[in-house]
């Protein structure tokens, strides 16, 4: 399993890209996608919705379970990935590329993000 170095991670297995003009992309990690199994439904936050760091903002349903989606940052959702809504399996097949979930205009600096090394340590042995 290979997590991109340039991303930040959460203990809940979401990833966050570096912000460009204040907007960052959010997705779930390959570790989370594998743990979920085949994702069959994605409920993402809507454009214009305000999300709060660490709070639930959607859910992913798989053949195994339903899992809450947590926002790694606070801000306003500026885009939701309609491709994932139409084809939730993208979360499994391309969690760091086409399977991203939403984009958010960050309103305050996130507090509890992990580096790649910290995230790798968190998931080691699981």
- From the 3D structure, determine the CATH topology: OB fold (Dihydrolipoamide Acetyltransferase, E2P)
CATH architecture: Beta Barrel
**What Rg is obtained from the alpha carbons, in whole angstroms?**
13 Å
Q: What structural class do the secondary elements suggest? A: alpha+beta
| Tally of helical segments | 4
Describe the structure.
- By secondary structure, this protein is α+β, with helices and mostly antiparallel strands.
- The chain has a single domain (8-109), classed as RNA polymerase II/Efflux pump adaptor protein, barrel-sandwich hybrid domain (OB fold (Dihydrolipoamide Acetyltransferase, E2P), Beta Barrel).
- Helix content is 19%, strand content 35%.
- The protein has helices spanning 30-36, 82-86, 90-93, 116-123; strands spanning 8-9, 14-16, 23-28, 39-43, 50-51, 56-62, 66-70, 74-80, 102-108.
- The protein has a six-stranded antiparallel β-sheet. A three-stranded antiparallel β-sheet has the order 4-6-7.
- A hairpin with a 6-residue loop joins strand 2 (14-16) and strand 3 (23-28).
- The model has no long low-confidence stretch (mean pLDDT 94).
